[in-house]
Structure formats: structure tokens, C-alpha cells
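Morning F.,

Quick status update on the modeling queue. The single chain you submitted on Monday has been processed. Sequence for confirmation:
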Amino acid sequence: ELVRQGEALKRTEQMVDKMDQDLKTSQRHINSIKSVWGGLVNYFKAKPPESKPEQNGAPDYFANSRLKEAMMSSKEQESKYQESHPNLRKLDNSDNDFYKADLVSSVQTDAYPKNQQLRAYHQKIDTNLDEMSSGLSRLKSLALGLQTEIEEQDDMLDRLTKKVETLDVNIKNTDRKVRQL
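C-alpha cells below.
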């Protein structure tokens, strides 16, 4: 959603820049209509380029790389998470026996008590803590990516606000000049 909003902000900023360029062109036409002298000045003055409107400090918009990396990492881990989540995986006894056997074989046996049931509980707790740790690290990277993206869009909004305020003043001045004609 933030990426979509960033793209919308970028398009809005480009439209404001286009309006500013159009306003400058209309100002030239008003000067030509207003007096002969304004027409002569505009005739000898270099015409503004007909290309893209200037961006006035607005770089091309790309979603934050930190956010992109976090989203990619999160999507990669999503299937693993769904497979290991107790409420999302199938709970038949054969899977649980395999899961317990896998746990027992994957963890060092001397780090746990000698009692089989107690050892199985300790291993299950360690596995759950590992899953919680990976989930929290995933959330942390997403949160940091979101924070960076929000800060960048906040800067874009500040720039856009200044441009719109300037454009509003210029439109009012141009409107006043047209009414005087």
C-alpha cells in the first residue's frame, strides 16, 4: 500500500510540475496580449523547451530498497511459516511422530535432560523460540522498511506542499492579470 501511495505521490508531483510549466507558458501569452512591448520581449526571449516538465528536485520514484528486501524476505519465509505454524499445518499423528523424531535428531542430546519426555518438551520449546525469533526478525525488517518508506514519502509530501503553495499564488496572480485585460 505504501509503494502504491508513493507512486501516486510521484504522479501528483509530476502533474504539479506540468501545471507550473503550463502556467509559465500562459504568462508569456498574457505578456504578449498585454502590450506590444511584452510581445517583442517574448519574441526575442528564448522559448522554453517543449520537453518533459522539470522535476524541481523530485527524483524518480522507486520504493525503498530496504522495504523491497523486507517484503521479498517475508514472502520467502511465508510458506515456511505456514508449514511450521501449529494452527496452519495438518495435525495427524504420523506427522507429529515424524516431527518429534526430527526434533530429537536435530538437537544435541547432551544439552537436554536425560528424561525422554522432558527432553522432548525442551526441544519443542527451543524450536518454538527459534520460530518466534525468526518471525520477530521478519517483523523488525518490515517495520524498518516501512519507517524508511514513510520518511521518504514525508519528504516528498513536504516538497509537494511547497510546490502547490507556490503554484496557487502564481495561479491567483495570473488570474488577476487576465481579469485586468
